[in-house]
TrEMBL record:
Binding residues annotated for Zn(2+), in chain numbering: 278, 280, 283
Cofactor: Zn(2+)
Pfam families, per the entry: TGT (PF01702)
Name of the gene: tgtA
Species of origin: Candidatus Acidianus copahuensis
Function as written in the Swiss-Prot or TrEMBL entry: Exchanges the guanine residue with 7-cyano-7-deazaguanine (preQ0) at position 15 in the dihydrouridine loop (D-loop) of archaeal tRNAs.
Domain tRNA-guanine(15) transglycosylase-like stretches: 14-339
Family: Belongs to the archaeosine tRNA-ribosyltransferase family.
Name of the featured protein: tRNA-guanine(15) transglycosylase
Length: 501
């Protein structure tokens, strides 16, 4: 049924899913390039030649120019497997203050030209500082949402799937309020977080993480969440990890008009480039110098095309990371691309319990996890393990803790550990104290992820400190050991308290 969303793979709070539309299933995470048929920086064919199957265009502009006579697919000569999303004119409101069109007109128009995914006329909050003003945009959007829901029920065309935008700007409580209301209307099978563009232009990525959380945590998991205007490659995987399913943007063209060349982690001015660090069809064919010498239209066209390839590449890389269950490691890697991205990563870790909640327990075949610094202790597999250890049922009032700095898995086959197990047989709980994990019961040490990991030769000091704190906290607060004996801890970087009865 149109609007059905089926989740196939999950990692952190991100997922690969399939959204059913009248023109086939949209695989998410997806990027919708903004196209403007009235302005040919890059032709629709150029765009579709990248392999993309979904585009977004502005219903307000098309209607104003009366550009589409039949359906959007027929007029733009689109194949039957191309999914067309519409934007309503909300962005024009943000730019020009007002548009001369009603909510009902824009909904009927999108339905008439048979958009696959339609949006009613919301009022974007943007980055307004005044909370009353922000609330006003939220309330008008809500009111229009109700109006839209009534209209949608009456429409003959049931092939369009409708989106309810969530507003609130940087005011997280307003986003929550807006999200709950949007989620309650069953006419909308997709929701969208509005107006992050201005916030992203200011590199305020950590705020973006909070905004996504405020929206995502207040809507049902079964509904896809779109991010309006999220066309910067470096932030895409972070947004996906927080639960964003699709993006749209004109950034690839806007950057190109400004002579800006996107890579997956950086933005360059074309004149600063000696080489193209890319193998897309544009960069394979031309040198930066050749591109610079072209007339402006052709330069913009080719730069746009390259920029689009980069965004699509980032989407694919993110999907692959989800598929392989290594999205967290991918975020860690991306974090170092820019201090603002690093801030987004740090801020995302604040939501480790939320990420853990949605991160699947079983991720296909078991792969080892890569551990780096103290942030690795906040990845879902480790967070989940720490929670488990806090509840771990002790079977004795005595614990033996072997400092495991110098040990490698499989722990159970280590001769020293074997001897300790024999020595204490049933009279004590025997643990290995290990960086990142904390306490590992020897009897469980073979289970995932306790011996399936790779770590650096020199584990950073912070990890030892955090691990020691964790272990001491568990011993002193959660468990009731009368006696704690330490083994091999003299030269350990872990500082664990012993308890003698
Ligand atoms: Zn390229």
């Amino acid at each position: 049924m149109i609007g059905d969303f089926e989740v196939k793979d999950e990692d952190l709070a991100g997922r690969i899913g399939y959204l059913t539309t009248a023109h086939g299933k949209l695989e998410t995470p997806a990027f919708f390039p903004v196209i403007n048929p009235l302005r040919n920086d890059l032709s629709i064919n150029d765009i579709l030649n990248t392999g993309i199957k979904n585009i977004i265009t502005n219903a307000f502009i098309l209607k104003k120019r009366d550009y589409i006579k039949d359906t959007i697919h027929k007029d733009l000569r689109l194949d039957n497997d191309i999914i067309v999303m519409m934007d309503s004119g909300g962005y024009q409101i943000l730019q020009y203050g007002n548009v001369n069109i009603t909510n009902s007109e824009i909904i009927k128009y999108q339905s008439k030209i048979k958009a696959d995914i339609g949006v009613f006329l919301d009022v974007p909050t943007g980055d307004v500082e005044n909370k009353h003003e922000a609330l006003r945009t939220v309330e008008i959007t809500m009111k229009r949402g109700e109006e839209a829901a009534n209209l949608i029920r009456e429409l003959d065309n049931k092939d369009t799937l409708w989106v309810h935008p969530i507003q609130g700007g940087k005011f997280l409580d307003l986003i929550e309020y807006s999200a709950k209301k949007a989620n309650s209307l069953e006419e909308f099978s997709m929701l969208a977080l509005g107006s992050p563009t201005v916030i992203m232009e200011k590199y305020n990525y950590d705020l973006l993480i909070d905004m996504i959380f405020a929206a995502r945590a207040n809507i049902s998991r079964g509904k896809p969440l779109h991010l309006f205007g999220g066309g910067v490659p470096h932030i895409i995987p972070f947004a996906v990890a927080m639960g964003i399913d699709s993006f749209d943007s004109a950034s690839y063209i806007l950057y190109a008009r400004d002579g800006r060349y996107l890579t997956r982690n950086r933005t360059y001015k074309i004149e600063d480039l000696e080489y193209f660090p890319c193998s897309c069809p544009v960069c394979t064919k031309y040198t930066p110098k050749e591109l610079m010498e072209m007339d402006e239209d052709e330069q913009t066209r080719l730069l746009s095309l390259h920029n689009l390839y980069k965004i699509l590449e980032e989407i694919k890389e993110t999907k692959l990371a989800i598929k392989e269950g290594r999205l967290f490691e991918y975020l860690q890697e991306k974090a170092f691309s820019h201090p603002a991205v690093y801030s987004a990563f740090q801020n995302l870790l604040k939501y480790s319990l939320y990420l853990e909640k949605y991160d699947p327990r079983v991720k296909g075949e078991v792969k080892g996890i890569f551990l780096f610094d103290q942030y690795s202790m906040i990845r879902p597999e480790i967070v989940r393990y720490h929670q488990y250890m806090r509840k771990y049922k002790q079977s004795s009032d005595m614990a033996v803790i072997i400092c495991g700095d110098f040990l490698e898995p499989p722990f159970i086959s280590n001769e020293f550990i074997k001897d300790i197990l024999v020595k204490y047989s049933n009279s004590a709980d025997v643990f290995i104290a290990f960086p990142y994990y904390g306490l590992i019961p020897v009897t469980l040490s073979e289970s995932f992820p306790l011996s399936q990991f790779e770590k650096p030769t020199n584990v950073p000091n912070y990890v030892y400190i955090e691990t020691s704190n964790l272990i001491n906290d568990i011993i002193s607060k959660t468990k009731k050991y009368r006696k704690v004996i330490l083994e091999m801890c003299e030269n350990s970087k872990l500082h664990i308290m012993s308890i003698s009865s």
